[in-house]
Amino acid sequence: MATRTPFVGGNWKMHTTLEEGRALARSVVAGVDDIPDVEVAIFPPACYLLPIMGVLGKADSRVLLGAQNCYPESKGAFTGEISPVQVRDCGGRIVLVGHSERRHVLGESDAFIARKVRSVLAHDLTCLLCIGETLEQRERGETDAVNEHQLRTALAGLDASIADQLIIAYEPVWAIGTGRTASAGDAQQAQRAARRVVADLLGEEAAGMIRILYGGSVKASNAQELFSQEDIDGGLIGGASLVGEEFVRIVEAARP
Ligand code: PEP
Question: 236 CB less than 6 Å from ligand 1?
């Protein structure tokens, strides 16, 4: 069985002031110092990437810096957007792509998300691709089909060579920011099915290497049960990543 280094990411969304963000980053850095066996990243708002990089110290620091989004072009007339080149310039190493708030609140299409995946990979960044079904889709029994569709459209035409640049997060939309968490069994089932799709697209070896995270109201109190599932390799954390101590306890829960 493949051994995958667990990964925990903190998606700060549009939260924190600059000073709150700096303090939060400092508490994460200090808190995960003695947890070397879990990869950790934080995703501050874009305008704080550079100052937060100042707290982390360097781009290959213990806590990696990530961007919540980027536009799929290196530069150009795209007012309000940031490019993968600019993310890298700020010390960013990872970009979230296809987060449900981008899909459902900002209206990003599968085709646009697929362009972002390619652009992030082409700029030598790690792509953290988010997938997941809405409540209506779950109630219609479409969870696996929705995840499969999102994976197939986002990863079409790619091959195993990108395996070490890809992390997937299964985030049921109805569980994000709602306090409702998928049961560990349901999440495991969906993530096992997603891994089978990745195997079909990129091959068995790549599917064995790629981390698949769970996201959706993860807290220190439920993290361990979720992360102990065979196909759950850590988490993408929203609300609970805004409290340093809680986030560090979630990182601890991801230890192998
Ligand atoms: C997220 O934003 O990816 C997320 C999972 O949020 P929350 O943990 O708040 O549900």
Answer: yes
Number of domains in the chain: 1
- 2 assigned to some structural domain: no
Pairing, β 211-215 against β 63-67: unpaired
β-partners of residue 236 are: 9, 215
Which residue, by CA, sits nearest to atom 7 of ligand 1?
238
Token pair listed for 119: 């652009």
Domain membership flag for residue 109? yes
Query: Which residue segment(s) compose the domain that 199 sits in?
Result: 7-253
Judge whether 133 counts as a catalytic residue.
Answer: no
Q: Is 234 in the pocket of ligand 1 (CB under 6 A)?
A: no
In a domain, 1, yes or no: no
Report yes or no on 143 lying in a domain.
yes
SS3 content of the chain, % helix, strand, coil (to 5): 50, 15, 35
Catalytic residue check, 99:
yes
Q: Residue 31 sits in a domain of what CATH number?
A: 3.20.20.70
Which residue minimizes the CA distance to atom 2 of ligand 1? 238
* pTM of the entire predicted model: 0.97
Does residue 93 contact residue 65 with C-beta atoms inside 8 Å? Answer: yes
- The tens digit of pLDDT for each residue in 196-230 reads 999 999 999 999 999 999 999 999 999 999 999 99
Catalytic option among 133, 148, 171, 246: 171
**Torsion angle, alpha carbons of 11, 256, 182, 116, to 10:** 40
